[in-house]
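Chain A, query sequence.
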Amino acid sequence: MAARETLEKIEAMVAEARTLPFTDRILINDNDLVHYVEELRMELPKEVKRAEEIVRHEKEIVEDAQKEADRIINDAKEYATRMTEENEIVVQAREKARAILQQAQQQEKEIMERTQANATQLQNDADTYAKQVFDQLIAHVNGTFQGVRQAETGLQQALAVLQQAKEQMNGQSHSVSQPMPASSQAQSPVAK
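Chain A, predicted structure.
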């Protein structure tokens, strides 16, 4: 569950990040983000290995079930052999041996199906979990990357506005500092 905790740290970092002025974007410490990505990179193989260990354990159960089924079948065969030695109960012994054999085969089949279903489910769960982790990480990184791009666009727009304002101020100061024509000076009252 360490990978899940690292994703929660990334979510908290995004939720607590400061908003950039003039935008609805946030500022995130890229060193922290890289650190968390490295944590995920180290933890995901461990999570997959744990899932594989669970699947291996399921294989042991299947092998044990197979051994038990073989033992039951051998017991049934031995029982059938013993019963054939006695004339009066040969028919009963064969029927009982068949029933035991069928029961053993049915139990083996059920155990194998359950174990296979469990192993498949565990593998699917592990695959789904790994996919979710990667999807969440990609979404977080993509959102952060887009936020940085939009912040850069906002800063470029702000710089353009500031440059326009500077140019307007420079243009006004040039027009104010130029001498007025004599006819304009005569008509304009000068405040003293």
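The CA atoms of residues 36 and 171 lie 51 Å apart. Helices lie at 2-16, 30-84, 90-177, 182-187.
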